[in-house]
Amino acid sequence: MGYTYSQEDAIRFLRERGLEYRVNGGEYAVRRCPYCGGGRSGRDEWTFALNIEKGVFRCLRASCDAHGHFVELARDFDFPLGGSAVSYRPLAEPTEKKPLSEEALRYFAERGIESRVVARYGVYQHGSRADTLVFPCCDQDGTLRTVKYRDMNYKKGCGAKEWFERGTMPVLFGMNLCKGRDRLIITEGQIDAMSLAQAGIKNAVSVPGGMGNFRWWEPCAEWVNSFREIVVFGDWENGRMTLLEEILRRAKTAVKAVRRQDYLCEKDANDILVRYGAQALVKCVENAQPPAVENVVALADVAHEPVDAIEKAATYLPELDRLTGGLVMGELIVLSGERGSGKSTLMSQMICAALDQGLKVFAYSGELSEGRFKYLLDCQLAGEENLSLSGGSDAALVPPGVERAVSEWYRERMLLYRGGDVSDEGVTPEALCDTVERAILSHRVKAVFIDNLMTVMEAVGDQNNLYLRQSRFAGRLKRLAMRYNVCVVLVAHVRKKAARDRNLDFASDDVSGSADITNKADVVLHYTRLNPAPGDRALWNGLLNVTKNRLFGQVCLTQETGVKLRFLPASRRLISVSEQKPRRYGWEAAEQMEMTMRNAECGIRNE
Q1: Which CATH architecture has domain 102-286?
Q2: Fold for the domain defined by 316-582
Q3: d(Cα 276, Cα 115) in Å, to the nearest integer?
Q4: Alpha carbon distance, N-terminus to C-terminus of the chain
Q5: Concatenated DSSP letters for 194-205?
Q6: 516 exposed, middle or buried (CB, 10 Å; 0-12, 13-18, 19+)?
Q7: What angle do helix axes 466-484 and 429-443 make, rounded to 10 degrees?
């Protein structure tokens, strides 16, 4: 009965051969062709494809051009078809073994392997093919299971270099010679295993079918896992060690790997033996270590960072600074509140504090023009005593001299996103993050303020992916904060009536948009402006709640525990109820110093 192709067999073949693959349309695309391996350098990737429905395959590399049907692929790589239950053909010991010729002994001697080692592994010569070596592979009990053949005069492109008896049980070459259960060294080739034995290293074995053939694992798994540890000594090719990843996935005992530097820029164990001698191989095995895991570090090697050593800046709101540490570098702070509650005013107040402490600041405002953003910030920095009132309204005016002094004070430290050249849809989240990163790198910005999430998302055309884009935006802001040790403040709205429904008791889930926004934030703040009743002379008219505080842990969710603030309409300042006198920012000291110097030049003495 003929074989009927099945997708299950195709997947089983790819997995057992350790071939990395992905589904691409109607094909299994394979990272490296099992025939050519991606060329001599291994750089040609995804050139091999196997049709999922029909089972036909082809490699697109012109020098390879392997093609055919899956049954031929299975034949070429000795892959059993017809289900996972495999029966193996018994193999009888040959009645006569042809001794190795002088040519064969010279073949091993050129590779640094003495005849005594060759004899120990039982290698002999093919009876009818003088150029073929025979490597018997016996199980742990000494029973012959398969035989591997090697062409001594192999030339690339002229037939097969190695092959073994079909239908026989694949077992590790040399496993019958292993003693004890301390350490097992697994190599990719018989010559490599024999090279280790030549160096006096015990329990060296070789896989029978190359790096992509792991059919040996099932017959040998129990025996392999009985060792205290496995040292993988595969070939170093294309920037990685063969065998290692697949053995790591399968083994249940400790696995170590020969270090890259101990290969001494050679490919395998035999190359090391020939060029640098037996002692170099001994060092390879003795220096073997558990394989490094990318992006993982031993916690004991991490430098301790106490909370009081973390870089931070005050918000000038003492109660908030006590709870959260203020503007903590490396953190993403989400500042939320209902529409018109004063979120932007509070953010601007934080900018004033950051500037006053010498930080370089980047700000994005999606709701204010550049001129109006500057006017409101200048009002806060100026303070009521330095403002005048407009003749026709109660609006505050910043006198030209004050505006000039304030601007010169923050000239090198205050950057504002310029949105004049942006399309009608606004700036995309990705473009804004790119700008933030360039500002951090070019101007050494330490505090980033983004007002607000909703305006940034206006450019997201596909509303079905809105929450995903919000999550990615918040995630990238958090990564920028951590990577460059800066503080990022993101303003966001709250869900409709969230505060009212809970009687001014707030939670992080009240923030509008994807839940990932507050999940990725280190601190979540919620600001509410209160409308006092006529005649109410309360000292505060704003409430700031801390609903998440990752580093310091303290939160205040209710009206009773929240931070009480007072809004000063003329200067647009938000101050703590504990603040006794108006704050003076650094520009005033700079202006006073400049005036003193001018007076000194004119011979005028300050009173």
Answers
A1: 3-Layer(aba) Sandwich (3.40)
A2: Rossmann fold (3.40.50)
A3: 20
A4: 113
A5: HHHHHTT-SSEE
A6: middle
A7: 10
Tell how far CA 55 is from the center of its chain.
36
What number of other Cβ atoms are within 10 A of residue 381's Cβ? 31
pLDDT of 500 higher than 50? no
Which pLDDT does position 42 carry in this prediction?
72
Instruction: Tell me which residue has tokens 């935006």.
Output: 473
Question: How far is 496 from 391, CA to CA, in rounded Å?
Answer: 38
CB contact set of 69 (below 8 Å; sequence gap of 6+)? 5, 55, 56, 57
Query: Given the structure tokens 């270590």, which residue do they identify?
Result: 289
CATH entry 3.40.190.10 includes domain 7-76? no
For the stretch 123-177, pLDDT in tens is 999 888 888 999 999 999 999 999 999 999 888 777 778 888 888 899 999 999 9
Q: Model-level pTM greater than 0.90?
A: no
Bridge partners of 336, per DSSP, are 492, 526
Closest by CA to 5, choosing from 79, 69, 101, 75, is 69
Q: What residues does each domain of the chain span?
A: 7-76, 102-286, 316-582
Distance CA 336, CA 16 (A): 53
